[in-house]
């Protein structure tokens, strides 16, 4: 197999690995700052008399806020790349090593500013319910939020950089993705947020927020707002929650995004290989069409396998857990 | 610009908009209640999960559009990409519900699964509207993801090859038209929906009419931009 093709597959695996890390930290960041859907319960808590020490940041839905951070990081990195790359001809990766972390740092600072204002604003609005703004909660969570956000944005910006240069990196510039770095950051920012919101929230919202309620049932409407306020030791803050969700929810969420990126890149590249498109790249010919057809067929096979997998899984769970027996 | 091309651009945008609206109604959206296991579906908003799926599809479709000029193949690549995303998300959500919270996937709107005929009511927690992603919801979400991905990629292809936008601009414009339609659908859904078996699905015709109007307007604006600015985009 030609070295270009091997390198292409190797970069694909690097991207999938980065995606796993990105989404794991994305979920932890939303748990650490209590963003997204389960935060509705933190908002409700003070209103039903449950004064708490949770960090309450609801900047926006996770997809949009992550898209904003990734686009900010991507745009600054892209601008810096434009400046730095001519300084190191032939060794452009050196420019990326400097440009990407600076871009991500700027995005992280924006995140921390938004988190602080969002927490203070929302908690101040709950004054009538006797909910105080605990300053130690505010100060103590900002750095962990920033650290988790840095990891997410850094991985996504790296993915965007690799994808927009994947052809150059593997020795065949025609394979570079047509989208620019900031647009790829936007795409994966939205996607990583959508996945973190739809998958990762479940472990925080349905389990950790209601840990003193019966395990193994959907959380009833009467429980809403009555969140668990005490930790294994002392009063619970978000730091206890991130540690708990790291054990199962966050890696599962990371795996979801990692699998999506892996399946998507894998089917495209295997399709190109089977269609005879690599490494000569005869675009807009019958070979190009064959590569697309193979990619589509492989994608449909993955979909079929997942559908059967879900059918078997749901059947197994229903048999194993049985009907509802509580009151 | 030739009249045939003009009709093609507007036609693709309108068809894309209508498919986006239909796809949004098929996706199982549980919103905030789903994150607590109080409602069936995916624990996020309609627009958010749709955007996530379509973005994934569009990424692959844009790659395919660099080496294939077939409208069908590019659109299908986008559709399959969005479907893969939806399938993985729904499956992993079930894994989290089952192993993280000990919750069985069950529909809140029907007592018997219309596809597998499995009973739903005995497994449901009282005072909830179902939880998890049961099989009928999974199938509906898969179809919804396919239609939404197809719509996004179709609009992208039309803007790229018929209106001669650059790749980046075509993606942004396609997504913008898509978001407009998704938000219209979200207004129509009002909160949560399970899929084609949900009573709320009957509201679809109204959403399609408004989608048609919005997409037609978007198509005309795209046409004006392409005609007046020509190859400057």
Task: Detail the topology: elements first, then pairings.
The complex is a heterodimer of chains A (about 325) and B (about 230).
Chain A lengths: L2 H31 L5 H9 L14 H23 L8 H32 L10 H30 L1 H5 L10 H27 L30 H8 L3 H26 L11 H36 L6
Helix pairs in contact in A: 1-5, 1-7, 1-8, 1-9, 3-4, 3-5, 3-7, 4-5, 5-7, 7-9, 9-10
Chain B lengths: L2 H24 L4 H5 L3 E2 L5 H20 L5 H31 L27 E4 L2 H28 L4 H23 L14 H26 L4
Parallel strand pairs in B: 1-2
Helix pairs in contact in B: 1-5, 1-6, 1-7, 3-4, 3-5, 3-6, 4-5, 5-6, 6-7
Largest sheet of chain B: 2 strands, parallel
SSE-based structural type of chain A:
mainly alpha
Oligomer: heterodimer
Helix content of chain B: 55-70%
Number of strands of chain B: 2
Number of domains of chain B: 1
Number of helices of chain B: 7
Strand order of the largest sheet of chain B: 1-2
Beta-strand content of chain B: under 5%
How much is the average pLDDT of chain B?
93
Largest interface summary: A-B, 86 and 79 residues
Average pLDDT taken over every residue of chain A: 93
CA radius of gyration of chain B is 19 Å
Percent strand of chain A equals: under 5%
Give Rg of chain A in angstroms.
Answer: 23 Å
The low-pLDDT segments of chain A are none
What is the H/E order of chain A?
Answer: HHHHHHHHHH
The total of helices of chain A stands at 10
């Amino acid at each position: 197999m030609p070295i270009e093709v091997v390198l292409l597959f190797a970069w694909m695996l690097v991207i999938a690995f980065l995606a796993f890390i990105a989404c794991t930290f994305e979920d932890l960041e939303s748990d650490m700052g209590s963003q997204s859907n389960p935060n509705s319960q933190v908002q409700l808590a003070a209103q039903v008399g449950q004064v708490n020490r949770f960090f309450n940041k609801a900047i926006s839905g996770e997809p949009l806020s992550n898209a904003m951070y990734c686009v900010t990081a991507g745009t600054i990195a892209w601008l810096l790349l434009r400046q730095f790359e001519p300084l190191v001809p032939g060794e452009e990766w050196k420019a990326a090593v400097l440009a990407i972390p600076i871009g991500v740092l700027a995005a992280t600072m924006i995140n921390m500013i938004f988190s602080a204002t969002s927490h203070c604003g929302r908690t101040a609005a709950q004054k009538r319910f006797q909910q105080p703004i605990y300053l130690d909660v505010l100060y103590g969570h900002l750095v962990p939020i920033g650290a988790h956000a840095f990891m997410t944005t850094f991985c996504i910006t790296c993915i965007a950089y690799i994808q927009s240069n994947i052809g150059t990196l593997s020795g065949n510039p025609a394979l570079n993705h047509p989208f620019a770095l900031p647009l790829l950051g936007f795409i994966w920012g939205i996607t990583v947020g959508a996945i973190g919101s739809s998958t990762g929230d479940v472990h925080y919202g349905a389990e950790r927020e209601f840990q003193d309620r019966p395990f193994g049932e959907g959380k009833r409407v009467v429980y809403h707002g009555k969140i668990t306020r005490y930790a294994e030791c002392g009063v619970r803050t978000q730091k206890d929650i991130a540690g708990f969700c790291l054990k199962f929810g966050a890696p599962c969420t990371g795996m979801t995004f990692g699998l999506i990126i892996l399946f998507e890149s894998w089917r495209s590249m295997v399709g190109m290989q089977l269609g005879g498109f690599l490494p000569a790249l005869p675009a807009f010919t019958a070979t190009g069409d064959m590569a697309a057809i193979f990619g589509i067929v492989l994608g449909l096979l993955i979909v079929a396998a997942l559908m059967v997998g879900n059918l078997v899984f749901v059947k197994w769970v229903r048999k194993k857990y049985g009907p509802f027996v509580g009151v | 610009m030739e009249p045939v091309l003009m009709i093609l651009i507007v036609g693709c945008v309108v068809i894309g908009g209508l498919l986006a609206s239909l796809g949004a109604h098929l996706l199982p959206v549980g919103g905030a209640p789903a994150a607590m296991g109080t409602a069936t579906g995916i624990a996020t908003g309609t627009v958010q999960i749709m955007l996530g799926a379509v973005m994934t599809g569009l990424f692959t479709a844009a790659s395919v559009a660099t080496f294939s000029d077939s409208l069908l193949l590019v659109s299908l690549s986008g559709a399959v990409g969005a479907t893969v995303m939806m399938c993985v998300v729904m499956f992993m959500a079930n894994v989290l519900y089952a192993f993280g919270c000990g919750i069985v996937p069950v529909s809140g709107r029907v007592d018997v699964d219309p596809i597998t005929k499995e009973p739903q009511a005995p497994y449901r927690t009282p005072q909830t509207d179902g939880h998890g992603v049961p099989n009928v919801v999974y199938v509906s979400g898969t179809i919804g993801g396919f239609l939404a991905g197809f719509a996004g990629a179709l609009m992208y292809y039309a803007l790229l090859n018929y209106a001669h936008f650059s790749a980046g601009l075509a993606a942004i414009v396609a997504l913008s038209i898509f978001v407009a339609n998704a938000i219209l659908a979200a207004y129509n859904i009002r909160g949560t929906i399970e899929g084609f078996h949900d009573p709320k699905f009957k509201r679809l015709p109204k959403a399609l009419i408004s989608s048609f109007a919005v997409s037609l307007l978007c198509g005309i604006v795209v046409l004006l931009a392409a005609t007046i600015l020509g190859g400057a985009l």
